[in-house]
Write a structure and sequence with these properties.
Blueprint lengths: L13 E3 L7 H8 L8 E3 L6 H4 L4 H21 L12 H12 L109 H16 L1 H11 L1 H14 L5 H15 L13 H8 L7 E7 L11 E3 L3 E3 L8 H5 L3 E3 L12 E7 L5 E5 L12 E5 L5 E13 L2 E8 L2 E5 L9 E2 L10 E2 L2 E10 L1
Parallel strand pairs: 1-2, 5-8
Antiparallel strand pairs: 3-4, 3-7, 6-7, 8-15, 9-10, 10-11, 10-15, 11-12, 12-13, 14-15
């Protein structure tokens, strides 16, 4: 019997031949089949170096991550963990925990063999996590949409009808085009530039927490309302999620369905693409994860490259490329978003191989111009100013201006948002304001970072 075949079995008398074992895991599998040490026999010589030569780098990193996860679990059990330390994956929750505790924090009781510190840093994986998705066959005669996303918008699971009580009687003159390009021709959308404009919001779902969707979708609708024809064209060219939302907004404008029904349909699409990132029930959804899916395109938007701030050495091969326009302000000393975007970088603990200084940063380079941009902020950084306008420079030498359209806030396990149009500001909370947004007459952009106990954790910009 091989070590592979013996897994899960217990042998009362375990006679083993470990001479051909390739690694210490194989040794463990063979010897741990025994019910007791007295009845275990090693019949041949073995390579002691395989179990005394030290752990590999990947195994040591695995043990370190387990130690941090153990500490996170303990603190959560003791109710000492901030609500901001959460995530849909091991990597994301560890990253948030280290942002809170500091990069050099090591829990008590970690074995010296796997401890990290100034001389041996804790390496974070910068690679994207691959997602599983069920791809359904299309009906004959249909053509696939031009998108690079895995989720399929016409799977049988998505053909769920909207409840009857969520279907207002359609107007006879309303003509809805499912391709999403000319559905609003027969109706008039009130522009944010007019005095009578009131942003449409979403009612919070208390059964399946929806505050992240409520804020983000309300903000996107606010942007769409400024120029429905132009933004409808932009939305439908980006990806299947924002295209579905654009079609739904038009249907709601034509009085064909409730906005909440559209939210639930798009949420079903997201859940089908990644059930862990976009769960149902009383779970929270990461706003950056939501922004990445909605602001994704078919081309590379930006990449990160390593650069040393001491000797200015830069790698010409990017360590990370992205097709979405959700970015994170990685420099806590930045005075404003506009100031950071003039030279965007993220600080790290890496050591430069040329000058031996720990001044390596990830420099952000834009290769294409997005139409929308989500800028994520550190949850505890109240010093950075949210700029009304920002400029993005591309590697092609062009510069493009963006205007602030919405600010996302977080407090007490709940997301809220403010909507901006020039000097007018509205507030939306799916719980307190519901389907409407309240204009704030005494709030200025200088005070936009904080609203009561709420702290700004992200800003949405639109191409001017």
């Amino acid at each position: 019997m091989t070590d592979y075949a013996s897994q899960g079995k217990t042998r009362e008398v375990n006679m083993t031949d470990v001479s051909n074992c390739a690694n210490h895991q194989s040794y463990y599998t063979c010897l741990s089949r025994s019910s007791c040490a007295d009845d275990t026999v090693i019949m041949t010589n073995f390579k002691s170096a395989l179990i005394t030569g030290g752990a590999s780098g990947w195994l040591r990193q695995e043990f370190r991550e387990i130690e941090l996860l153990d500490e996170i679990t303990r603190l959560r059990h003791e109710r000492s963990l901030p609500e901001t330390v959460r995530g849909a994956s091991r990597r994301s929750i560890i990253r948030e925990f280290r942002r809170w505790k500091g990069r050099h924090y090591v829990p008590n009781g970690v074995h010296p063999a796997v401890r990290w510190g100034e001389n041996e840093i804790f390496e974070e994986n910068d690679l994207n996590t691959a997602e599983w998705a069920i791809v359904c066959k299309r009906k004959s005669g249909t053509t696939s949409s031009a998108t690079n996303l895995t989720p399929v918008s016409d799977s049988t699971a998505l053909k769920r009808k909207v409840p009857l009580d969520d279907q207002p009687t359609p107007s006879k003159r309303a003509k809805f085009s499912p391709d999403g390009h000319n559905a609003v021709i027969m109706t008039t959308v009130v522009s944010p530039e007019t005095p009578q404009y009131k942003p449409v919001g979403l009612m919070w779902d208390a059964e399946n927490y929806s505050c992240s969707y409520d804020c983000f979708f309300t903000a996107l609708r606010h942007i769409w309302s400024a120029d429905p024809l132009r933004w409808n064209s932009r939305f439908t060219e980006m990806n299947v999620f924002i295209k579905e939302l654009a079609i739904g907004i038009q249907a709601n404008e034509l009085n064909l369905c409730q906005f909440e029904a559209i939210r639930d349909r798009v949420r079903l699409l997201l859940h089908g693409s990644s059930p862990t990132k976009f769960p149902y029930g009383k779970s929270f959804v990461s706003m950056p994860d939501l922004a990445k899916e909605f602001l994704r395109s078919s081309q590379v938007i930006h990449e990160k490259r390593k650069r040393c701030l001491t000797c200015m050495t830069e790698d010409f091969v990017g360590i990370y490329t992205s097709t979405h326009s959700a970015i994170h302000v990685g420099d806590p000393s930045a005075r404003s978003i506009a100031d950071w975007l003039s030279n965007p970088f993220e600080r790290t603990a890496y050591m430069c191989t040329r000058c031996s200084q720990r001044t390596i940063v990830f420099h952000l380079l834009f290769h294409a111009v997005p139409t929308l941009m989500y800028v994520s902020l550190e949850w505890n950084n109240r010093n950075i100013r949210i700029s009304e306008t920002v400029t993005v420079s591309t590697t092609h030498g062009t510069q493009h201006s963006f205007r602030l359209k919405a600010v996302i806030y977080w407090v007490a396990h709940h997301f809220t948002c403010r909507l901006i149009s020039n000097d007018r500001i509205w507030f939306h909370d799916g719980i307190t304001t519901g389907r409407v947004s309240i204009q704030e007459f005494h709030t200025s952009l200088a005070d936009i970072n904080i609203r009561g106990e709420s702290i700004a954790i992200g800003a949405i910009y639109a191409l001017a």
